[in-house]
Amino acid sequence: MHIVLFDTPEAHRALLPLTFTRATADLRVGALTIAEKWQRLLRVQKVYRRTPAYMQPLYEVPGTAEETLYIAGNLLPDAALIQAIEALAPGEGLVQNNKLLAMRATTFLHDQPLEPSHATEWTGTCMFLQMPADVFRFNGEQIRFDFDLLACTAKPIAVTDPHTVIYGKDNVLVEEGARLRACVINAEDGPVYIGRGAQVQEMSVIHGAFALCEGAVVNIGGKMRGDTTIGPYCKVGGEVSNSVFWGYSNKAHDGFVGNSVIGAWCNLGADTNTSNLKNNYSTVRVWSYLHNDYIDTGLQFCGLTMGDHAKAGINTMFNTGTVVGVAANIFGGDFPPKHIPSFSWGGAHYGWQLYRLEELFRTAGRMMQRRGKQLSEAEKQVLTYLYEQSRQTKPKEV
């Protein structure tokens, strides 16, 4: 049976700019992506994605027509939900408040609508990602959830460095190839996961819940506060609190990032800071692509949301609740606007213009080459589509 994690138009738009360049199932919440969670829990070798048409070339589709289980890509799994989904009969769907959670089809449906012949209302709890801030809001809980999943298959090693201090050793999982040197790890309030080949350098302090994914590095003197995930092959320093970094992004120097979500292949220059709390302690408003306007998150703490391939120069100061689109290039210090559209190039004192696509490809190519990667033709096509769709309109004032 095929497992397909599907995007809905509403979920895709609600989670922009994070979903401009990836399926919702590839959002990382906790130590694992949503797709990785379902794959482990359903005990399958592969899960497929059904995305908006412009992104589908990034993903493989099933090659055979057989029974297929469809699951909403922005749905976070739990044991009771999995049991209900696995019990679905062919043609049956599981819904909650008119939203399709899952359905079992007799065959793989290419572009056909997902319409179960019979729907069962799910009365249990379920956790959806409904806005980008949900990624960091749910992150601590999901690190704890994923820690138990990872412990089932991990190849842990003992921490032998005599200058590393660990509190709550039973809550620490260090995978093979990881290196910890003269650091402090406090897992008394939440688990700490250190992935394969990851590094925690000298004088760094980590508080759980925390996940450092494969090949990632906490630079010298880093201060990693709880409910934070550093994605694969990222390099981070300074102070990070309740934030999620996607893979291959850098915040190598001092500066504060809190209650934020940073996309893949991003770079934050030295002394870049994010405000995550307003001076009047009121709730934070952010730009919503779904509503095409600013909306109230209902959260008192909310920092930066940044799409893939975006860059910020040294001394950039991001206002509370700033949203940066894909491949924006921000420089010049000071406070940029709270909404920076995709492919914007400029700064607070320089004005804004459309970033040239050819220059983006060159910059992305150089950055990816440093990590032994290259921009695929499918990725270029996605970025080209987004570029052609982008509009350099002045954002509405808060």
What does this structure look like?
- The protein is built from 7 helices and 37 strands.
- It has 398 residues and is of the alpha/beta class.
- The chain starts with a strand and ends in a 9-residue tail after the last helix.
- The model is unreliable at 394-398 (pLDDT under 50).
Distance between the first and last residues' Cα: 48 Å
**Order of strands in the sheet with most strands:** 10-13-16-19-22-25-30-33-35
The percent of residues in helical segments reads 10-25%
Average pLDDT for all residues: 95
Assess the beta-strand content as a share of residues: 25-35%
Shape estimate: globular
How would a textbook summarize the main sheet? 9 strands, parallel
Coarse structural class = alpha/beta
Uncertain segments of ≥5 residues (pLDDT<50)? Answer: 394-398
SS element count, helices: 7
Overall number of strands: 37
C-alpha Rg (nearest Å): 21 Å
What is the secondary structure topology, with strand pairs?
Layout: E1 2-6, H1 9-14, H2 34-42, E2 48-50, E3 68-72, E4 75-76, H3 79-86, E5 92-96, E6 99-105, E7 118-121, E8 127-128, H4 133-137, H5 139-153, E9 165-167, E10 172-174, E11 179-180, E12 184-186, E13 192-194, E14 199-200, E15 205-207, E16 210-212, E17 217-218, E18 223-224, E19 228-230, E20 235-236, E21 239-241, E22 244-245, E23 250-251, E24 256-258, E25 261-262, E26 267-268, E27 273-274, E28 285-288, E29 293-296, E30 305-306, E31 311-312, E32 317-318, E33 323-324, E34 329-330, E35 339-340, E36 344-347, E37 351-354, H6 357-369, H7 377-389
Parallel strand pairs: 1-2, 1-3, 5-7, 9-12, 10-13, 11-14, 12-15, 13-16, 14-17, 15-18, 16-19, 17-20, 18-21, 19-22, 20-23, 21-24, 22-25, 25-30, 26-31, 27-32, 30-33, 31-34, 33-35, 34-36
Antiparallel strand pairs: 3-6, 4-8, 5-6, 28-29, 36-37
